[in-house]
């Protein structure tokens, strides 16, 4: 019986480490996603303000930025979902490993679930790498877009100056 308990804890070790790693990755992805969503909301409000004031050139410039940020947000969302699936799979594999001490098919299922979880975690990291490599694209597009350069002081900078 003591040997079974020792084997159980050994079997839990790898998935437990993966659970910790996936949770940290999820935290990082969540912070990135919230930053992107905040920026997206800001641009949507600025576009609405510009359109309401009849500044269609400015509204069109914001529209371009909104599309770019939405593409990035979708990449981060996919990364987030795959990391969540990997986390759920790692937890399930822990439970199946424990059950596998009493039912051999559960141990075999645990291995399959763990492998699928690792594939999902890898896919999540690849999406995250992709997003990080394109993270400056919105800023670069804004810098190249002469419509933004003709606007003068960005509204968010003007608001910050007024608050000082």
Topology:
Layout: H1 2-52, H2 56-100, H3 104-133, H4 137-144, H5 146-149, H6 155-163
Helix pairs in contact: 1-2, 1-3, 2-3, 2-4
- Measured between the Cα atoms of the first and last residue, the distance is 69 Å
User: Biggest sheet: strands, sense, closure?
Assistant: none
Unreliable runs:
none
Strand content: under 5%
- Overall tally of domains: 1
**Helicity level:** over 70%
Query: What is the H/E string?
Result: HHHHHH
By DSSP, the count of extended strands is 0
Mean pLDDT, to the nearest integer, reads: 83
Count of DSSP H/I helices: 6
Q: How large, in whole angstroms, is the Cα Rg? A: 23 Å
Secondary-structure-based class equals: mainly alpha
Q: What's the overall geometry? A: rod-shaped
Keywords for this entry:
164 residues; mainly alpha
Account of the 3D structure:
With 164 residues, the chain is mainly α. It has one domain (2-153). The protein has 6 helices and no strands. It has helices at residues 2-52, 56-100, 104-133, 137-144, 146-149, 155-163. Helix 2 (56-100) runs antiparallel to helix 3 (104-133). The termini are far apart. The model has no long low-confidence stretch (mean pLDDT 83).
Task: Provide a concise account of the structure shown.
With 164 residues, the protein is mainly alpha-helical.
